[in-house]
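WARN  no MSA supplied for this record, continuing single-sequence
INFO  ligand: molybdenum atom
INFO  echoing inputs
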Amino acid sequence: MGKRERELIELYRDDPERADAQAFGRRTRIGRRGFLNGAGLATIAAAVGGAIPFAANMPAGLIPAALAQAAPPAATPAAPAAAAAPPAPRPTLKMDGKAEIVVLQDRPLNAETPESMLDDDVTPTAKYFVRNNGLPPEALGDAATWKITVDGEVNTKLELTVAELQQRFQPVTLRLQMECGGNGRSFFTPEARGNQWGNGAAGCAEWTGVRLRDVLQAAGLKSTAVYTGHYGADKNLNGTDAPTISRGVRIAKAMDESTLVAFRMNGQPLPNIHGGPVRLLVPGWAGSASQKWLTRVWIRDKEHDGAGMTGFSYRTMKTPIVPGGAAAEANTQILESMPVRSIITNPANGARMAAGTRQLALRGAAWAGDRTVKAVDISTDFGATWKAAQVAAPANRHAWQRWTMNVALPSDGYYEIWTRAIDSDGNMQPHVAGNWNPQGYGANPITRTAVLVGG
Ligand SMILES: Nc1nc2c(c(=O)[nH]1)N[C@H]1C(S)=C(S)[C@@H](COP(=O)(O)O)O[C@H]1N2
Ligand SMILES: [Mo]
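INFO  complex generated
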């Protein structure tokens, strides 16, 4: 690789806009940049490691996925050597019982699962992302003595140990997708505040618990009950007991048959790091509603106002604002059901295939909050043409849906696999993250995966 290519790669890391201008040429008077050709094309091709068969369709201003996204942390059979000069690998988690997922922050611990590690129908506990706002209890609590309280707008206040919950109510096991409200945040331009999640603050595990509905019915909801308020036993970063996070949901969601008080994950007692011995699992909504180390469900007569319910937390704009511009609190709404999203779980971003490879077996997952996924479309030519993937039905309501597709490649070179899902209401993933908001929720642009054949 020549000096000019190396410089361009570094520039993409440090100042993507300038790098882009170099590769694509200057803005013209009508505000559009030139097509990728000549010297720009040669430089980009060298930077991504191979010729670009569909370069003619590359939208002006597009930063190649091979340069824009972080590389998978390590080469595995499913994720072979990364394409030329990807960004430096990020640190990975070293914890008993956990796989080496990507650490975004140490304290509090926040770690996401690279898309290529989400290739199982049911996400193994080891690979499941971790999102903490504070410090988890030091040891796993005992199910025989750990108590949760249900109080507030109820006829009978309940205090139940986890063991009592298990005896008193009918246990159910469901595959439920859950993702952080900030999943996809790194796709916002300009950068929004918070952990820069890719698409991997998400998973679909098999959860066993009792329905929150059954517990609330046993307590008896008063007619004044409109909202829940959740509390957990984690410690604040400054060591105090002030709630790290205390969110809630409208009663209708609390009464949904998929909303669980969960004490088992993938057939095993819930581990400490995922909220053991007991947590809420509120699938399809921002993950912050799924309180870990659950100690109390307070039934409110108004919208809950605990930590993380107010200001710009877990809120999106009612009407769009200028990205990066000033936002008014009055123009925000609580993020409830998450928007439609698809991921590619095979191949990995940055995968390198043997020269002569002409067929790719693509696999992935898609989900859409409270809705289902109607279709997943795939493009290998920078969005010029799209074909429908095969999308499986969800195992149960609120389970993610797996998709597969075989695509043909015309020659060796650099490709990007683009995926976009469409939900049961007809909402489609947008080409770029829309509706920018200060803390960066709900970014769900089409997913791009770089693949290099030969080269
Ligand atoms: N008590 C407590 N519950 C919590 C959190 C927390 O910091 N403390 N984080 C929430 C957020 S923001 C998310 S996305 C999910 C993450 O669950 P996980 O760590 O099991 O993936 O837990 C939620 N429940
Ligand atoms: Mo979250």
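Helices lie at 3-14, 16-24, 38-48, 65-68, 162-168, 212-219, 251-254.
INFO  checksum written, moving to next record
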